[in-house]
Fold:
Amino acid sequence: MRREASVWRFGPFEVDSMRPEVRSPGSRIKLQDLPHRLLVYLLDRPALLVAREELREHLWPEDHFIDFEHGLNTAIKKLRSALSDSAIDPRYIETVPRRGYIFKAEVHRESRHRPHSRWLFGSIAAVLATAAILIVSTRSANVNPAVAVLPLEHLSPESDQAYFADGLTETLITDLGRLGAFRVIARTSVVHYKGTQKTSHEIGRELDARWLVTGAVARAGSRIRITVQLVDATKDQNVWSETYERDVRDVLALQDEVARAIARRVSSAVAPSSRRRVATHLVIPDAEEAYLRGVSAMDEYTRDGLEKSVAYLEAATRKDPQYADAWAALAEAYTYVALNQTQKRQEVMSRMEIAARKALQLDDRSSQAYVALADAQLWRWSWREAEKSLRAAVALNRSDSSAHWKLGYLLGALGQPRQALAEIQSAVDLDPLSPSKRNSLGLALYWCHRDDEAMKIIRQVPDGDENTFRRHRRLAEIYEEQHLDRLAMAETLRWVELSVAPERLAKLKRQCAASPYAQCKRTALLLDIEQLQRQSAAARIAGDFALLGNRDEAFRWLAKAIDAHDQGVMWVNVDRHWQSLRGDPRFTQVLRRIGFLPAS
Structure:
């Protein structure tokens, strides 16, 4: 019997059961037979736990059992590499320790014989970003032209020098942003176009950018050569190009020169405060190499990548203690480390603040350092100091999407939802392909009680990013407030599925099938509390008890959350989880402990 071929689409990717490859717009990555069959098997069972023993039974021949563990782990690593996925923060393939794997993202399947345009959907991330901006933009269309620096091509003769081009791409984006003359699209969005075959017109439309910077970097010994072109995306036309060659010690001045040359051709409105790089500091070549390696490793967003990034950046600051950019990047790397570990977090935060202050001592125009400093200030509940640091970051670099994003979060926590929405909208404009920032836009609309608009945003972000659980839970809350119990129950089952053991989910489904939504929600919250008590998630447990109406337990867990500096406590004034606690006298004491009210 002839097998029926199928095609699966998820995120920007397409997989055909008959072709051992992963396709995305402008890219085709070949797969070996085993990783391809493994991927097809997972795609055919989205959102379900696929046990390791099940994979062995269906994909491995009986006489290869001895190689199963190594073969499966290798195949998973190859799939994650092909999908640019992370084991620590997976968008697609999630590991359930000692049990198996779950394919997390939303999957669309169709038979191969159905007629369809090969790239009818294009890049899903880009389409969703563009559509959502059109739906909910809180201001008129941007008249300020945006610039997107596409990943610079690596032309160095040494094969291991790709980090050099990646690092210079990042620093060129930062330097252009500092000039303040136009919006500069964030690297987390432009990185999607590495090796792309899309036209400049397509890229410009998806990023809402008129100008594209393309180019290449070559390094030979102590000399570096950068070739850049400026493309008008509206006309798909190259309007300027130039080649620069310098000694690697002059790299700071070279980056500044390239950025200013681009700025002069895009806009005459270069901010007067954007002074030139101080030419008296010549970077030590070994420090520059360690810095660029550290910046490149940070972009991996994995535990191993962060460890490498910190090691390289610490080496850069040892080799050249006057290298401000290295100190600022080190502070940012510490931020990511702190977010991904609960042990020794206070120690990491202390190192982060030291690095940030050292960077600002050497160069007080570093928005990156101010953002890292704000993270340390938020950690110790110094809200106004953090706000001051984030506003300084925005003033220094209006294209720093992280500064706008974190300022928006802080303003929301401080009870200024409309100002928060404006800042988060700015972050999305600068980083339109970031699922996390789009989720934040939905959250900001939710704070403003613009629930219909919030739901449009939340639904459009595909599953698989770090906010998936929170997104489904927030949808359940909105549906409940709109008395749409059937939809609220469906979303409740979805968020529980993402947070509790599968066998408990099956029990909940049986209970919910025969119970009203209120009982289903109560059971879900109790399951969540049981699961969370094994983790360091005191603020979430407190929120669950608040929803259950158990104020004593809610306040007990809130106290634990404050002692642990759980950042979830930030939302006590704005998140609807806490509404039942706000009339209790103990709530005032909570606000005093975290600095939202002055001490009595």
